Automatic annotation (TrEMBL):
Domain Mannose-6-phosphate isomerase type II C-terminal: residue ranges: 6-108
Name of the protein described by the UniProt record: Cupin domain-containing protein
PANTHER family: MANNOSE-1-PHOSPHATE GUANYLYLTRANSFERASE
Listed GO MF terms: mannose-1-phosphate guanylyltransferase (GTP) activity
One BP annotation, GO: GDP-mannose biosynthetic process
Matches recorded under Pfam families: MannoseP_isomer
CDD domains in the cross-refs: cupin_PMI_typeII_C
Signal sequence segment: none
Amino acid sequence: MEHDSRPWGQYWVLDDATTHKVKRILVDPDERLSYQYHHHRSEAWTIVSGVGRITLDGIVKDYKVGDTAIIPQGVKHRIENAFNEPLIFIEVQHGSYFGEDDIVRIEDDYQRV
């Protein structure tokens, strides 16, 4: 199983196919992913533990366990763990390409491009 550590936490790839990719993502307390969008994929994020503060095209909302955020291709998005417990969500990607180089970062706390 593919695994990677990031400045905000870590992820595990659960399924990787030509039509989709599925990840289990852990966001540490007081950390957040970059504000970003994708050219080649859409995503669905389902919270399985903790609370995710999700921004979609500038609109911020808290998502609790069982809630799913639908992120169409090209929509700017970010998830933040503003709470003390770990945040875990399942990300399902659909589209034509799932490489990490399809991340277009608009804003990043860790100065990544």
